[in-house]
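Protein Entry — a single chain follows
Next Lines — sequence and tokenised fold
***
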Amino acid sequence: MDLSYRPQAPAEEIETPPLENILSKPQSLSDHLLWQLDMSIVPMGQKEIARAIVGNLDDDGYLRVPLEDIAAMGPWSLEEVEHALHFVQEFDPPGVGARDLKECLLIQLSFHDMEGTPAETMVKEHMALLQGRRFKDLAQTLACSLEEVMHYVDTIRHLDPKPGKKYNAGSNNYVIPDVYVLKVDKGYTIVLNEEGLPRLRISPFYRRMIDRNNTDVTRETREYVREKFRSAFRLIKSLEERQRTIYKVAKSIVKHQQGFLDLGYEHLRPLILKDVADDIGMHESTVSRVVNHKYMHTPRGLFEMKFFFHSSISSTQGEDVSSLTVKERIKKVVGEEDARRPLSDAAIVQILSDDGLRIARRTVAKYREELRIPSSNERRQGFS
């Protein structure tokens, strides 16, 4: 497969998707977390506890309910609930599932590989000094310079104290693809949409200000501008890294789902976050963050990047089948049933088993509910 990178294609080379295809409905925090849970490898018992935890998060993404209360919701020990909570705390957005502000910030610092740094010590042991803006006292306590303290304070300021807030329901939004997948000969070329990104550069005027030979600028001004230079370079580097990561994830998705791109829905493969994370050498939560609210325009249409991730169902043919393919099969089976004698979930299981799919009745019930198909009793009553 030929997967090449082009930073941006001229507008005329890319077919813009129809307007009706780019209407996006907002996603709730719960939806986002449960999607990650479904795409993770975790024992079923732990999944049930994690679902209970997600269901008890507040709008800011915090768990205000005592763990003892979560344990009382099922036959779970406190240790099992704590283990499931730590699992949820690895999800995107970083900081979700925290029980207080301190834990929220510590989770985010860990996510940014800042464990063992003065920033972690400030949050873990000196929150009162930090919140009171007693930076000189912090420098003295940590035995480091005020400049170093301010560097880590700036890092902490950029953390999100309310990681779930941005998922509050809002109005529908029109979306523009972040990635274009173009068919080129027998392969696919990935083009990142960089139209909305700012073109950043450092002003020559400010470059001259940090020149040591410039006697028109005071030392304090030079140091101030130099610090702003560092911040600007960090921003530019961050934007470049963001684009590289989106490209890597998109490339991996296309590699795994080329069958779908070539032949259609029946060839959509099972794919979980770990598959892509292992492929590109990144953490699962990084992949989750990258695909969240990102859209990919392909020769088969415009899709949210999350669309390409599906759990697997075993088959007797030797290859696992995507859960989406199974859902489409369930929809077709129900659509062709005798309306006077609707099929029970057990009957659907038997039909799928005859097709070579190994699936439990409760999984069929779950998929049927996700498809908003009523139970056999409700379908029978609806017919009568």
